[in-house]
Write a structure and sequence with these properties.
single chain; 83 residues; mainly alpha; elongated
Amino acid sequence: MIALALLAALGAFALLALASERHRNRWDGVDIAWRRRGGWALVALTFATAFVAWGPVYGAIGALGLLMLGAGVSFLALNLTQR
């Protein structure tokens, strides 16, 4: 479950970053509104799987940590690669 939460967090911030003004042209196949909806759905999935894995108290803390990790990875991946 923790691996699923990590993958959901990575995917969430990748989709939300690809929906931003700066990176929207990197992936032309999907509409921007669907990227945002998918990103927020994956944020909710991250919290749900973290709650199942760690319980409600530690799950919230773990989910926020995984989301911060996902944000950092997607920030580095999008800003350090060529356009």
